[in-house]
Amino acid sequence: MHFDINNTILMRDSTKGLDTSSNVSRIVAKSVWGRHTQSEAGHSWELCHDQLTFVEPESPNLLANLAEANGNTSICSYMDYVDAHFPKLSGSESQEEKDEREAVRKSMVAKFSQPGGLGSKFKNQTEKMMK
């Protein structure tokens, strides 16, 4: 028998090189749903569901202060947004470029639920998971 205790008993994932803080941030980023908007001005993501869930909500309870979107809109988790617009580099890029990209990705996820972040609403849940 094989049991994967990562993300269940242990909140760190040594197979992916994630300490507790990084892993909790990643779990929250995968569980928060928002609206991805693509327009001439570029891409953006904004929170549109006020509960953590691993599956896409059937009918996101849009937050009252969410402005009407212009352009193409879709619902995705914050981690999906990061993966789509800041994908891991695996081609012929230098190791320095790959390391820089990974640092940007980690920073975006780590800052997500902190004060001033796009998911600051979930700061308390993140802190509870850390404890």
Can you tell me about this structure?
This protein is α+β, with helices and mostly antiparallel strands and 131 residues long. It has a domain at 14-32 and 50-62 and 79-130. The protein has helices spanning 20-31, 78-85, 95-112, 123-130, and strands at 33-39, 42-47, 72-77. A three-stranded antiparallel β-sheet has the order 2-1-3. Helix 1 packs across helix 3 (95-112). The longest helix has 18 residues, at 95-112.
Topology (elements, then pairings):
Blueprint: H1 20-31, E1 33-39, E2 42-47, E3 72-77, H2 78-85, H3 95-112, H4 123-130
Antiparallel strand pairs: 1-2, 1-3
Note the main attributes of this structure.
alpha+beta, 131 residues
Q: Helix and strand string, N-terminal first?
A: HEEEHHH
Radius of gyration: 16 Å
Helix and strand composition category: alpha+beta
Q: Mean pLDDT score, rounded? A: 83
Q: How many β-strand stretches?
A: 3
Residue share in helix: 25-40%
Low-confidence stretches: none
- Please give the largest β-sheet: 3 strands, antiparallel
In angstroms, what separates the terminal alpha carbons? 29 Å
Strand content: 5-15%
Shape: globular
How many helices in DSSP terms? Answer: 4
The strands making up the biggest β-sheet line up spatially as 2-1-3
Short description:
The chain is built from four helices and three strands; from the N terminus they run H-E-E-E-H-H-H.
